[in-house]
Write a structure and sequence with these properties.
Elements (H helix, E strand, L loop, with lengths): L7 E6 L5 H8 L7 H10 L3 E8 L3 H9 L5 E4 L11
Length: 86
């Protein structure tokens, strides 16, 4: 409502960079998973596409993709240096 929109085309979970981030998103405990709230908004038509951005190592990115919870991936690559090596 604040944005003056009926829906958001692209909703991105920003910085899904570690295994811990995946746990926070998918295993939140008794109150439900955080991804459940996003799925609910998508089911209501308030979000059309759900994705994530990452600087993660390949094995973390692969785990996120394998959840089948995302429609797209914004993969960050730094040609000058390694973000994950810092």
């Amino acid at each position: 409502k604040t944005l003056g929109l009926d829906y958001i085309d692209l909703f991105s979970i920003h910085g899904l960079n570690t295994g811990d981030h995946l746990e926070w998103l998918f295993n939140h405990g008794e109150k439900g998973d955080l991804i459940d709230a996003v799925r609910e908004l998508k089911a209501e038509g308030k979000i059309r596409w759900v994705g994530f951005s990452t600087h993660a190592p390949a094995h973390v990115t692969k785990r996120a993709i394998e959840t089948d919870a995302f429609d797209y991936l914004n993969l960050h690559y730094h040609f000058v240096g390694s973000y994950t090596a810092s």
